[in-house]
Backbone:
């Protein structure tokens, strides 16, 4: 067997919401090992979401989780060399990887936004992903369109 299965890491729950998914998100958000700073950015972002959201039926954490679900890709295309040419083969993404790709997409698209503070950038990106718009949602749609266009090559599995 060439590839080893990667071990799924178990995360500690975060201090405020007691949710391991939040810790995982904060780990992706963190730069230079500054975890407390990443936590403050995330918590300020959730507060910002609750301020901006006029409907008080959902908490900021639920909106964040729905935004993650909206950004999560289900298929991706991988390049495979067959008969002297490279073919884009659509493949299913494992559930653990789906979440990671969604988190990284949200964070990277938030960093490219034009606002002053990272918490406001992140809150804006999460709200736009919740409404099924924004850069991270477009990225997911493009991935799905590429997979749909290369559906004919789906029998070339890895």
Residues:
């Amino acid at each position: 067997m060439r590839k080893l299965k990667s071990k799924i890491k178990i995360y500690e729950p975060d201090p405020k919401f007691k949710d391991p998914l939040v810790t995982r998100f904060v780990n992706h958000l963190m730069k230079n090992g500054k975890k407390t700073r990443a936590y403050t950015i995330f918590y300020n972002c959730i507060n910002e979401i609750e301020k901006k959201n006029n409907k008080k039926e959902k908490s900021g954490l639920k909106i964040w989780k729905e935004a993650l679900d909206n950004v999560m890709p289900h298929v991706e295309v991988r390049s495979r060399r067959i008969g002297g040419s490279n073919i884009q083969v659509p493949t299913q993404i494992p559930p653990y990887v789906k979440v990671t790709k969604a988190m990284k997409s949200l964070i990277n698209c938030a960093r490219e936004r034009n606002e002053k503070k990272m918490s406001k950038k992140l809150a804006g990106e999460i709200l736009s992903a919740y409404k099924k718009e924004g850069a991270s949602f477009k990225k997911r749609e493009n991935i799905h369109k590429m997979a749909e266009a290369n559906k004919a090559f789906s029998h070339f599995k890895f």
